[in-house]
Amino acid sequence: xxxxxxxxxxxxxxxxxxxxxxxxxxxxxxxxxxxxxxxxxxxxxxxxxxxxxxxxxxxxxxxxxxxxxxxxxxxxxxxxxxxxxxxxxxxxxxxxxxxxxxxxxxxxxxxxxx
Amino acid sequence: xxxxxxxxxxxxxxxxxxxxxxxxxxxxxxxxxxxxxxxxxxxxxxxxxxxxxxxxxxxxxxxxxxxxxxxxxxxxxxxxxxxxxxxxxxxxxxxxxxxxxxxxxxxxxxxxxxx
Lengths: 114, 115
Description:
The complex is a heterodimer of chains A (114) and B (115).
Chain A: E1 3-5, E2 10-14, E3 19-21, E4 24-26, E5 32-39, E6 46-52, E7 60-61, E8 64-69, E9 74-79, E10 88-96, E11 99-104, E12 108-113
Parallel strand pairs in A: 2-12
Antiparallel strand pairs in A: 1-4, 3-9, 5-6, 5-10, 7-8, 8-9, 10-11, 10-12
Chain B: E1 5-7, E2 10-13, E3 19-24, E4 31-37, E5 44-50, E6 53-57, E7 65-68, E8 75-79, E9 88-95, E10 105-106, E11 110-114
Parallel strand pairs in B: 2-11
Antiparallel strand pairs in B: 1-3, 3-8, 4-5, 4-9, 5-6, 7-8, 9-10, 9-11
């Protein structure tokens, strides 16, 4: 069964600080897909990034970066130089090959203080 | 590019009434998903369609819930004899899946309050 754990619930940072969100996942599949979504106060889930299990290359996209480590089943997400507009709930999600549902973690509430 | 739209955005109903929600996916997307999100939780999968075929249903989808996608375009989710426990945000998402798994794009949701 697929499972995603996001341990931290609320994280407060001062503007321009970096914030890292932890995500640990469980799956029995060898092929799977990991995602990060952002849910601002307006409520709409916004897709941020996707990573395939067979591609462990870590990347940076603007102020976002992620660290995918299969050995520890972790898919952490970092926002560099946080801004007030980054205040939102961030969800990590997992989808297994042949199983189209997304399994979400409970989310991390990020509060960026100006 | 028009995103996923949902209607209504908010619905307040009395316990025991039936409600129906509509979702219009991104036009070229062949897959459509329904999720439910309660306060402080991540979305939970309910069901999904590939074109007009409903291919998977969660245990969360009791027999009071029914979903359709009659022409492979828009979808409806109906809840019969609503209960207070049905109060939640109902999210629709769509994706284009040719090979592999593609990211799902979500609509703004329908917030249901059962009084």
